Amino acid sequence: MAIAKEIIDFSNDTSDSFVENYYKVTDYQRENLKEFYNDSSAVVWNGTPIQGLDSLDNLFRSLPITLHEIQSWDCHPIQDVSTNELSSILLNVNGLVSIGKQSINEFKDGKTLGKHKNKDIVLLPKTFKKL
């Protein structure tokens, strides 16, 4: 079954807003990064699960300063097969990133955005590995 134009437009608009805001906050307002998560969100960092907004906030504040330059992003709406409603958005982001005083590196980031209480869009769990 074809994906409705409204779902595609919503996915594009949501992803565009998310990319613009998430990386700006990551680079310049790290203290607000936890706002993209909810209290039940979990992140796995180098094999260690981290859960809860306070713990996530401590993790984000402990990371080196970054500067992202987004070159492209692509999103794909994912529908619930039983209802044909949007259940999540798969988002891929590509660009350049400087971490701390290191030189600029290429980065590829995949995120999954999901519905929370059928209204808000939140980040779904992800595993990170420090390189």
UniProtKB/TrEMBL annotation:
SUPFAM superfamilies: NTF2-like. Pfam families: NTF2. One of its GO terms (cellular component) is nucleus. Keywords: Cytoplasm, Nucleus, Protein transport, Transport. Its main location: cytoplasm. Gene3D superfamilies: 3.10.450.50. InterPro entries: NTF2, NTF2-like_dom_sf, NTF2_dom, Nuclear_transport_factor_2_euk. One of its GO terms (biological process) is protein transport. Residues 14-130 form the NTF2 domain. It is found in: Cytoplasm; Nucleus. Coiled coil: none annotated. It comes from the Eukaryota. Has a role in nuclear-cytoplasmic transport of proteins and mRNAs. PANTHER family: NUCLEAR TRANSPORT FACTOR 2. This is NTF2-related export protein. It comes from Wallemia mellicola (strain ATCC MYA-4683 / CBS 633.66) (Wallemia sebi (CBS 633.66)).
